[in-house]
Write a structure and sequence with these properties.
There is one protein chain. 41% of the residues lie in helices and 18% in strands. It is built from eleven helices and nine strands. Strand 6 and strand 7 form a beta hairpin. The structure holds 2-{3-[(4-chloropyridin-2-yl)amino]phenoxy}-N-methylacetamide.
């Protein structure tokens, strides 16, 4: 039996030499220490031995068992370490490799202007509201003091959907809806940005689709001075701190009085240059005091309430500010044009 143990020991030494991975090592463990192992077989045979022999063999067997266990355990540790290392080696990432380029889009110049204007007016306590692009002529015309038969309602100038619905020509229907919807007739301070449409033959300065940001303030004791102060802040924010504005009389059916607003030229500072065509002033928007008819039709008593309104054309602002000379550039989606505005943050002084 001693010989058996001796032989088993040397066969084990030879077998463990051949083990190259954890799976094989596990097989080896089952073979040598499991229930049906050689060692178990020898241990079973020991039952027939004398007490003296049993003691001697038992000791040798335990020694062999402990030695096999410890050899298997230390090889296990070694193999585990090796497998982990090879896994780490395989999964290594070269952080110095150039990254895959991700194309990041930019903000469209019109969106940029709208965002800037929204930010400014939000900072002055205005709400930003949007509304439908397909409108009732009731909201687009009638309520804005443009009764049936008014020349501005000429069907040649608008995209009619049905007899009384059309693609809106301004965003003012949003303001009309807001005034009508405000049942408590509390003061209003809003700007309404969005797409607008008119039948135009597109050229460098005309587009059948364009944008508008209209503003409306309705409260008691609102005066032209409030309008001027507000638009001055707007002009300085968009065209530079040193700008001044001036009002010229104009006419819109929905405001009385109506004005055109000019900003002192951001290129020459007012001396006169090719951008302001020698006048020192550039027209930037139209505005006025809300016509009493509009207030009354929208449920605000014009004896009690006054208000101002203005309409900004983001295309015009962007063309002036970024020196764009053809409005069609905004709509033809030429990436070479749009790319120019990827990171544009133009500061005018
Ligand atoms: C322009 C400039 C303007 C308004 C828009 C407006 C809206 C309401 C009441 C009164 Cl609800 N006015 N909007 C006022 C003045 C000018 O836009 O050049 N428009 C043709």
């Amino acid at each position: 039996m001693k010989d058996e143990l001796q032989r088993l020991s040397s066969v084990f030494e030879a077998d463990i030499e051949k083990v190259t991975n954890l799976n094989e090592l596990n097989d080896l463990r089952v073979n040598y220490l499991g229930k049906k192992s050689k060692l178990q077989e020898i241990s079973n045979m020991m039952r027939d031995l004398s007490a003296e022999e049993k003691k001697e063999c038992g000791k040798l067997m335990n020694e062999l068992k402990t030695s096999i266990e410890s050899k298997i355990n230390s090889l296990k540790e070694e193999l585990e370490k090796k497998e982990l290392n090879s896994k780490l080696e395989k999964e290594r990432i070269d952080v110095t490799l150039p990254a895959t380029k991700i194309n990041v889009g930019g903000v469209h110049p019109i969106t940029k202007v709208i965002n800037d204007v929204e930010e400014l007016f939000i900072s002055m306590g205005y709400d930003v509201l949007e509304g439908p692009e397909v409108e009732k002529d009731l909201y687009n015309f009638e309520m804005l003091n443009l009764p049936k038969g008014h020349p501005a309602r000429d069907t040649q100038d608008s995209f009619y959907i049905t007899e009384d619905t059309l693609l809106r020509k301004q965003t003012s229907p949003v303001q009309v809806r807001t005034m009508l919807g405000n049942k408590e007739k509390t003061p209003i301070r809003i700007i309404c940005p969005g797409k607008t449409y008119r039948k135009d033959n597109d050229d460098a300065t005309h587009s059948h689709e364009f944008h508008q940001i209209e503003g409306l303030v309705v409260d008691t004791n609102i005066s032209m001075a409030d309008l001027k102060g507000t638009l001055e802040i707007f002009a300085k924010k968009m065209f530079g701190e040193n700008r001044e504005i001036r009002f010229r009389p104009s006419h819109f059916p929905f405001t009385e009085p109506s004005i055109e607003v000019d900003v002192s030229c951001f290129n020459c500072g007012g001396k006169g240059c090719n951008i302001c065509k020698g006048t020192g002033w550039i027209e930037i928007l139209g505005a006025g005091m809300v016509h009493p008819n509009v207030l009354n039709m929208c449920g605000y008593d014009s004896d009690k309430f006054t208000g101002f309104a203005f309409g900004i054309g983001p295309e015009r602002i962007a063309m002036l500010k970024y020196g764009i000379n053809d409005i069609r550039n905004f709509y033809i989606d030429d990436l070479r044009f749009l790319k120019e505005f990827d990171k544009v943050e133009k500061v005018l002084k």
